[in-house]
Write a structure and sequence with these properties.
The structure is a homodimer. The first copy, chain A, has about 240 residues and is mostly helical. Chain A is built from 8 helices and no strands. Chain A binds a DNA duplex (30 and 30 nucleotides) through helix 1 and helix 2.
DNA sequence: ATTTTCAGTGCACGTCCGTACACTCACTAG
DNA sequence: CTAGTGAGTGTACGGACGTGCACTGAAAAT
């Protein structure tokens, strides 16, 4: 079970279409080795990010080596530096990358909020479906949120604050008439985000867990959010 | 900046008091190298745990090496195996170790609950003081709760469930008369534990953070728990 | 047509790692 | 008093790691 090295023997296969005069309409083969230099570089970079995200499934970022990532991405270790200065820097970039599904989620939740009458139910459903379709991103965010790399922790924290403040704005819209201070709104939004993040981790740890199935977890999240909403109905910011 | 190896030259100094006939009243020197073999072993074992806990402050368990722990504990790497089979096993033991302050906390909170009139305030205060006096343990639990080592994650999860179910019992006592199902009580307790754990991490990350000072964080936690309590007042389990 | 750029290669290095093995020698049990 | 135990030692190994350096060759710039 020695080295699984490959690529060293497989010589770079250049694009064979040399005669065609139409540069716009390429055959594109099957999306293999094509594009400008910049495009190729971007693809490798993306590959490094993807591969790292896949490795996060079972381990923490701090225990993943540069060599391992390069190996899985099909490049030589030193070529890694053409894209990132270190694994830590890659980790910070990965935060942006992983926030994309979450941002898309909040947009979709807002849409559901308009259509559906039950805001909480639709929000939880959207959460569930997004976690199911982007597990790696959510796992990365929840695992590294309090993880061992300070720079990554900081980056996630910043993004999550942004997320919370967006939710705060939504809550403000729903509580006009009640005398909520923005500080209290933010506090309530933070509690909701916490509940949702804990739900995310529960969803990701299902499978190997006892009886908890997905529906049970989402039901609980729904009840927790409903409990908070109920509390907000009874709250007075300045008593 | 080569090897900082030491201990190899410092020969084991045996206890010098050989003449004294009283085996009970030892001079004890200054608590250095004394005790039975079993005691010495236990002390080394504890040292390994302590040293690891200290290293967790800035990194994750998965990135801490056996050699590093052994070095800091003042023993040779191979002697590590006299105490633990691997770093993973040490991690699982560390969970028990770290739960002790938390268990003591809940006991103290219950006492405060009896004396003080405001349960929430006293609970949050107890939380704050325990985090301040046992930062390493709390950091370990929160950092490795969703960390990279499955066995440790599992162990923490189990302990936290126990903690939650203890809180559930307390809540049941406070809500007699209201028709709460035990499932809903547990859901509410879980939300409270989540809020408290998030508070713990916020407390531990203060210092290097912006303006958030300790009091601000505890105030927020207090308001979050109060919000939940308010929600519970308005809740009906089977509507 | 020529030069420049630069993503990726290949090799080499020094360091740290986990762990196997044979050992010592203070304690303990008999 | 003697024999056995076992916590800790010292050496040694094979392998993985991060990274420096000189390189190649296709694409881009001139």
């Amino acid at each position: 079970m020695g080295s699984v090295t490959f690529g060293s023997g497989a010589v770079h296969r250049r694009t064979l279409a040399v005669v065609s005069e139409t540069p716009a309409a390429r055959p594109r083969s099957h999306g293999e080795r094509s594009g400008s230099r910049a495009e190729r570089k971007e693809r490798t970079r993306q590959n490094l990010l993807d591969v790292t995200l896949a490795l996060i499934a079972s381990r923490s970022l701090a225990s993943i080596s540069l060599r391992e990532v390069a190996r899985d991405a099909g490049i030589v270790p030193t070529a890694f530096y053409r894209h990132f200065e270190s694994m830590d820097e890659l980790g910070v970039e990965l935060v942006d990358e992983s926030m994309r599904p979450l941002r898309q989620m909040i947009r979709e939740a807002r849409r559901g909020q308009a259509a559906h009458s039950d805001i909480i139910k639709s929000t939880v459903d959207v959460l569930g479906s997004h976690v199911r379709s982007h597990p790696a991103q959510f796992r990365f965010l929840t695992r590294e949120r309090y993880g061992g790399i300070a720079a990554v922790r900081r980056a996630i924290d910043t993004e999550l604050r942004l997320f919370t403040s967006e939710l705060t704005v939504d809550l403000a819209r729903l509580t006009t008439g009640f005398d909520w201070t923005s500080e209290d709104l933010e506090m309530a939004a933070d509690l909701m985000v916490q509940a949702m993040l804990a739900t995310v981790m529960n969803l990701l740890e299902v499978d190997q867990r006892r009886v908890d199935d997905e529906r049970t977890i989402l039901d609980r999240a729904e009840r927790q959010l409903r409990l908070i909403a109920l509390g907000m109905g009874a709250w007075r910011s300045k008593p």
